[in-house]
Amino acid sequence: MILLQIRLRGFSPRCDYIRLSTMKYSFVVLCAVLNAATAFIAAGPQKPAFASHTATYATIEASPIETKTKAPVFDEVCDTTGVTLTRFMNEVAMLNPELRELTTLFGAIDTACKAISNLVKRSQLPSSQTLGYQGEVNVQGEDQKKLDVITNDLLKRALRFTGRLGVLASEEEDEPVDLIGQKKDENQEIIIEDSGKYVAVFDPLDGSSNVDAGIPTGTIIGVYEHDDNCEIDPDCVDDDCTEQEAACLANTLQPGTNLIAAAYCLYSSSTFLALTLGNGVYIFTLDEAIGEFVLSKPRVQIPRSSSIYSFNEANLEMWDEPMRETVLKWREGTGKSGKKFSSRYIGSMVGDVHRTLLYGGVFGYPGDKKNPNGKLRLLYEGAPMSFIMEQAGGLSTTGKERVMEIKPKVVHQRVPVIMGSADDIQEVIDAYAAAESK
After folding, report:
1. CB neighbour burial string for 24-48, b if at least 16 within 10 angstroms, e if fewer
2. Which of 241, 258, 357, 429 is buried most deeply by CB count within 10 Å?
């Protein structure tokens, strides 16, 4: 079989498959879109919703998803329910040779999520070595549970030994430097794999404080391209080396628009793995009978509006006025949709976002008087989950700007996040814009 991939300007974003048969050959002609903008919605002259405070609902519907990376080409195999993650990634690599190395990276993510799922399920057994606290505090000032440390090391090792990773950053690490899971000491050498192609950022176990209560937890992962200019002179000494290392580690400080892939694993009634490569969101479910993630929900699309919100309402009185007033209107049914909203809040970002993706609604952790920048970390929580949300047709904002466009200044930078159904998030954006114009 000969595969012809044709990229033509002006073609409809719908992919048509035409099979031409002769006695000797079979041809598959794949008419593909050029980028993520035309993969789902027709590009128009309108500005994106985050480009102006005067954006309207029509603006959202016609605006493209702006990223700096090219959307990959998919075929009918990638949309077939029941396909394994391995088969899915192999098909992506065949159609997009430039992503071939990403297949190896997702193979490691696949294995790590299965291992973490098993650890979480067994964590409450009396014989488990993951119970209790580690006795250390991470860079955010949070007590580290043993399970945090174990899952962090597990994911680091899985990703590092793919040979495809240059730098990684984690919630449980002070700096994005240690790729081998050893404790820091004065003589520890900074490790940078200059042969790697990718930069990985992750939260190894989001919601780990909920494990003891049996509440869903998850892993969040973002993948960027590694800067080819990251070079360290083997003969450098002292401060010269430090400057070169700092430049390489700046690879992690990229805006979400540079993401080439994002994924989360949810450990709940089943183990789910949701991913995007910049061409839609695909959710896989772990079939424990065969030990494989199988595609259960291809091309997930979040409803445009809903009547559910997920916030920690105990902080409502401390929120910004536009956010507080919008939520109060939703409660009373006096918002733009006229619907009376109900509250569904788990307290675990992965669990709340997963439900929001499937049923619609709004998830958020806004800034407040106590935490003006919110509590979610931009690099490895806000940006990857925003990428997934936008690829499913939703929006993600701080209220004043698009989360995906914020470039982190430090690895553990926090940011307010409100994401979900496009119409509902636009209402929040409009509320902030109206407050600023007063």
Report:
1. eeeeeebbbbbbbbbbbbeeeebeb
2. 357
Both structure tokens of 218:
């998850």
| Residue 23, phi then psi, degrees to nearest 5 | -70, -30
Give dist(CA 438, CA 436) in Å, integer.
6
Q: How far is CA 73 from the centre of its chain?
A: 20
The tens digit of pLDDT for each residue in 116-127 reads 999 999 888 887
End-to-end CA distance of the chain: 64
Residues 130 and 135: their CA atoms lie apart, in Å, by: 13
Question: What is d(CA 354, CA 360) in angstroms, rounded to the nearest whole number?
Answer: 10
Q: pTM for the whole thing?
A: 0.77
User: Which pLDDT band holds residue 155 (cuts at 50, 70, 90)?
Assistant: confident
**What's the CATH code, domain 85-297?**
3.30.540.10
Token pair 């081998």 is found at 180
Q: Residue 34 to residues 7, 31, 78, 91, 181: CA-CA distances in angstroms?
A: 6, 10, 17, 18, 40
DSSP annotation of 221 reads E
Cα dist from 381 to 262, 324, 385, whole Å: 10, 23, 6
What whole-number distance in Å separates Cα of residue 104 and Cα of residue 385? 22
What are the boundaries of each domain within the chain? 2-66, 85-297, 308-437
**Cβ partners under 8 Å of residue 200, min gap 6:** 105, 159, 165, 167, 168, 169, 221, 222, 223, 224
Q: Which residue has the tokens 């409502």?
A: 316
Q: What is the pLDDT of residues 76-91, one digit of tens each?
A: 999 999 999 999 999 9
CATH fold label, 308-437: D-Maltodextrin-Binding Protein; domain 2 (3.40.190)
Length of the chain: 438
